Amino acid sequence: MTKLFYYPGNASMAPHCLLEEIGQPFELVLVDRTQNAHKSADYLKLNPNGLIPVLADGDLVLYESAAICLHLADTHPEKGLAPELGTPERAQLYKWLMWFTNTMQSSLLAYFYPERWVDADNASGAGQVKAHAESKIAGLLDQMEDHLRKSGGPWFLGERYTVLDPFAMMLCRWTRGQSRPARSMPELGRYLPRVLARPAVQRALRTEGLEQPWV
After folding, report:
1. Which residue from 7, 54, 189, 200 has the highest number of Cβ atoms inside 10 Å of its Cβ?
2. Under a CB-based contact definition with an 8 Å cutoff, are residues 63 and 80 in contact?
3. Which tens digit of pLDDT belongs to each residue from 8-35?
């Protein structure tokens, strides 16, 4: 059986939502970050980076959220979670998924873990990193806002719900404590409730025990 190694609210959320959307049996395996389980010897055998999530399916062990999402779409084509290979729509999905993980997610990591980018005990430097990251994230949210305005929706890629939607929701959720969260913006503020209303997303959030507001 497919196993998703997860922690509530982490980057495992998008793959979890997709597994619920697909509707095939899978097992959730909690990796307790509060006990440093993601740095344990056993977990590092699955992901030497010590990061969450990991998807295990027989002999296949896969990490990186974006890669897991694409794999799930490709192995369940009947669910229509990605446009057909070789189409312009598929190319747009690749572009945005890579942008989500390489640009937006990396900026969010700098916001949440600014101490990783400065010398030890440099609280002032960490504060600057956090402030600059939040400023950059605001501009990236503007980019998402502009895309949604032009695409016409109701989903991120247009008329079709794809792997981009739970990924976008996950990243937008991480802005909820910022001075200008995604939910406060006109287009994103209308879009996010549509994603959250999907039964599969509801099941994932409730299974993870996450309290409202979710974004």
Report:
1. 54
2. no
3. 999 999 999 999 999 999 999 999 999 9
